[in-house]
Amino acid sequence: MFTKATLLEAIAGKNRGLLASEQDKQAILVAIANLEDLNPTPRPVEAGDLLDGNWRLLYTTSKALLNLDRFPLYKLGEIYQCIRVNTNSVYNIAEIYGLPLLEGLVSVAAKFEPVSGRRVQVKFERSIVSFQRLIDYKSPDKYIQQIEAGQKLTAIDFSLNSNEQQGWLDITYLDNDLRIGRGNEGSVFVLTKA
User: Fold this and answer.
1) pTM
2) What is the rounded distance in angstroms from the CA atom of residue 124 to the CA atom of residue 126?
3) Which of the listed residues 39, 53, 81, 144 has the most CB atoms within 10 Å of its CB?
């Protein structure tokens, strides 16, 4: 019987996928698919109470995210996806660590629109890259408050053309503390409530 524990054991020690061998990746994908078959929330997009909140990435196959660990002298810290159902907003936040006092932050703000009971269309609107100290970064919640308040940040902060920068995400498993998603580029994401 496949359970959440089976999946969590498979991804333990894999540093979100950075340390996963090809054999590990195959075993993890099998565990994900088996858990998706047991999804307790058949229409996750409509389960706003479960979906809303801050989610921490446990595992992904997304090369775009994993490549953030390739900056010289820097290491990828925590990665969050913060969903605000009441405003149809999503914030992807990656903490970057390395040289003392020069910890970085790479983030993207987007809007999502439900397309079906399990799929959302995502339109990326804003990208922000900065040093954590320059924007007084303390937590994802405080950072999102700064963004939503329209606060000008000392950062590389630019708008994205949401017509060009878009994709979709299927939420294939959702319970009180675990979410699995599959993106339009073939990537898989496993997240836990932060």
Assistant:
1) 0.93
2) 6
3) 81
Strand extents, DSSP E, 50-118: 53-60, 75-84, 89-97, 104-114
Residue 1 banded pLDDT, cuts 50, 70, 90: low
What is the rounded CA–CA span in Å between residue 183 and residue 124?
A: 14
Six token digits for residue 172: 């294939």
Structure tokens belonging to residue 37? 């078959």
- Burial classification of residue 58, based on how many CB atoms lie within 10 Å of its CB (0-12 exposed, 13-18 middle, 19 or more buried): buried
Report the distance separating Cα 151 and Cα 130, nearest Å: 14
- Fold assignment, 43-193: Lipocalin (2.40.128)
Handedness of CA 112, 82, 58, 124 (dihedral sign): positive
